[in-house]
Amino acid sequence: MDSIAKKPVNIPEALASFDDVYSPRIVARMNDYDVRVAHTLGDHVWHVHDDTDEFFLVLDGRFDIALRAADGTESTVELRKGDTFVVPKGTEHKPTSTGGSILMFEPSGTKSTGDRHEGELPDNVDSTTGHDL
């Protein structure tokens, strides 16, 4: 990962270097945070990050985030290219996409499936703390 700090990373080239969906790649680190990019397609899983907010920037396509309130009610935030959204810590959420790509800021070591998730992981979801580019 040290090589990333020594040269710029072109985001479209980084995304072109892999095809896996919901399998984020770390393109940079700053302070104690990872900057990650990922392809999106289909459903992720309901999950929660107890101690950290999660920042999303939609780079391409559509990316929806279902949110579940403490009382169990659900709502969905619809995001398109150029939109940003922050899921507050402790909020259950489930991303869904018809296809696209996202950029995320998360504390290093944060699992893509949160501190806990609902149900079995589908084949299209990689439970990871991010892969080096």
Describe it:
The structure is a single chain. With 133 residues, the protein is mostly beta strands. The chain has a single domain (24-120), classed as Jelly Rolls, CATH 2.60.120.10. 8% of the residues lie in helices and 49% in strands. The chain has 2 helices and 9 strands, in the order ααβββββββββ. The strands form 2 sheets. Strands 1, 2, 4, 5, 6, 7 and 9 form a 7-stranded mixed beta sheet that branches. A two-stranded antiparallel sheet has the order 3-8. Strand 1 and strand 2 (33-43) form a beta hairpin. The longest helix has 6 residues, at 11-16. It is globular and about 45 Å long. The chain starts with a helix and ends with a strand. The mean pLDDT is 93.
Distance between the termini: 8 Å
Radius of gyration: 14 Å
Beta-strand percentage range:
over 45%
- What number of structural domains do the residues give? 1
Q: Please trace the helix and strand order, writing H or E for each element.
A: HHEEEEEEEEE
Which homologous superfamily in CATH is the superfamily? Jelly Rolls
What class do helices, strands and sheet pairing give? mainly beta
User: Which of globular, elongated, flat, extended, rod-shaped describes the shape?
Assistant: globular
Low-confidence stretches: none
Determine the number of helices (DSSP H or I, runs of at least 4 residues): 2
Average pLDDT for all residues: 93
Count every beta strand, where a strand is a DSSP E run of 2 or more residues.
9
Could you say what the CATH architecture is? Answer: Sandwich
Q: Would you give the CATH topology?
A: Jelly Rolls
Can you summarize the main beta sheet? 7 strands, mixed
Question: CATH class, anyone?
Answer: Mainly Beta
Task: Estimate percent helicity.
Answer: under 10%
